[in-house]
Design goal:
The chain is mainly α and 187 residues long. The chain has helices spanning 4-7, 10-40, 47-71, 75-99, 103-117, 120-131, 135-159, 167-182. It is globular, with a radius of gyration of 17 Å.
Length: 187
């Protein structure tokens, strides 16, 4: 039985794996410390709504951006735009938390971030599936690297002692910029 690397050239396989790793790291840098960040800045009251923003975004956002990726632009371009928009929204939300803006403004920025980031996983999966020869066999190992990225993103935040700091969001935003830049390597 041939391996995934023999079915897909190793460079292309590495690109797809790196895409999932980076995206997983960026997501982990935001979602895992968000609860502690909100608590540390006296925003316990909006915490349930902040996490509900992801559910709202998961329902709404893919309808627009998925349709855009299907009909009007390549999935790589849509992912690039969403990565940069996610970085901007995450930076703004982190700055608002750090600066002590009104909780409802912070919640609106967290919702904006969720709207930008929600469709990225599905669009990245579309990019990967389109380039695999035997997706049933090849997708699992590539997907597993996203989990490793998530863990590494969390470790990086902890290594910089940013577990309860808005800096976690700034690090995540930087990683989203890397994801956006990385899409220029994808066909």
């Amino acid at each position: 039985m041939p391996t995934a690397r023999s079915t897909l050239p190793w460079v292309e396989y590495t690109e797809l794996t790196a895409l999932f790793f980076l995206q997983g790291a960026a997501m982990g840098m935001w979602f895992v410390p968000l609860s502690a960040v909100l608590d540390a800045h006296g925003l316990q009251a909006i915490k349930p709504l902040a996490f509900a923003s992801s559910a709202v975004a998961a329902f709404i956002s893919p309808l627009f951006f998925g349709a855009m990726a299907d009909r009007h632009a390549s999935p790589v371009r849509v992912l690039r735009g969403l990565s940069f928009a996610t970085a901007a929204a995450m930076t703004l939300a982190s700055f608002a938390i750090q600066s002590g803006w009104h909780p409802w403004v912070i919640l609106a920025l967290i919702q904006l971030h969720a709207l930008c980031t929600s469709p990225t996983w599905g669009i990245a999966s579309t990019i990967v599936f389109a380039r695999l020869q035997d997706s049933k066999r090849e997708f699992g190992p590539i997907r597993a690297v996203a989990t490793l990225g998530w863990m590494c993103g969390c470790w990086l935040v902890s290594a910089f002692s940013a577990d309860a700091s808005p800096h976690a969001g700034f690090y995540g935003a930087g990683t989203w910029l890397v994801v956006g830049a990385f899409t220029w390597l994808l066909p």
